[in-house]
Amino acid sequence: MHSLIGDENCIPVADIEKFVNAVKNGKASGVGGLSKENIISFNCHPDIVVHLNLLFNMIHLHGFVPDDFGKGITIPILQYNKAGDVSSFDNCMPITVSPIIYKVFECCVQFKFESVLESSNLQFGFKSNSSCSHAIFRLKEVSDYFVNHGRLPWM
Questions:
Q1: Considering the chain, what percentage of its residues have pLDDT values greater than 90?
Q2: What stretches of 23-125 show up as alpha helix (H) in DSSP?
Q3: Among 4, 10, 24, 85, which has the minimal tally of Cβ within 10 Å of its Cβ?
């Protein structure tokens, strides 16, 4: 039997506590109605972090993530556009509220394995020192090249 104690790949309780505390207060609760405040409140037993540690390490050991981790509540957020139609879906940006336990798990995995995780150079959003404006700039560069040279740069 594989032991989690001393396993160099396990996610320690201290990391879980750190990431529970790192989640912003006052965030909407996801599926199941749990929020950060439910996990760290005085009504919750301190052993909850130990139970999360067991859960996360079992996920790591067995390579199986619960289906509920993939569930979320999608909420349309109205974009600020004075000329736009507030009843149009085109004037909304959807956000998804994920379960707090999933958020903490995601933070732990990202922190633990960030040295081996890579993202594509073509990804601009949700990445350090990058944004949609970088993607727009790149698109403009490609468009300008096409207009000036009459062909795509990779042809």
A1: 0
A2: 36-40, 48-62, 100-113
A3: 24
**Predicted local distance difference test score (pLDDT) of residue 82:** 60
Q: Nearest-CA neighbor of 1 among 72, 50, 61?
A: 61
Output the pLDDT for position 48.
81
Q: Which helix (H) or strand (E) covers residue 149, if one does?
A: helix 132-149
Do 99 and 87 meet the contact criterion of CB atoms below 8 Å apart? no
* pLDDT, tens digit (0-9, with 9 covering 90-100), for 83-111: 667 676 677 778 888 888 888 888 888 88
Cα torsion 5, 6, 10, 14: sign = positive
Instruction: Kindly report, residue by residue over 112-126, the tens digit of the pLDDT.
Output: 877 887 877 777 776
Q: Which backbone phi and psi does 7 adopt, to 5 degrees?
A: -70, 125
To which residue do tokens 């569930």 refer?
Answer: 71
Instruction: Evaluate whether 12 touches 55 at the Cβ level (below 8 Å).
Output: no
Which two tokens mark 63? 């390579």
8 Å CB contact between 52 and 33? no
Q: What is the pTM of this model?
A: 0.62
> What are the domain boundaries of the chain?
13-117, 120-155
User: Strand, helix or coil at 82?
Assistant: coil
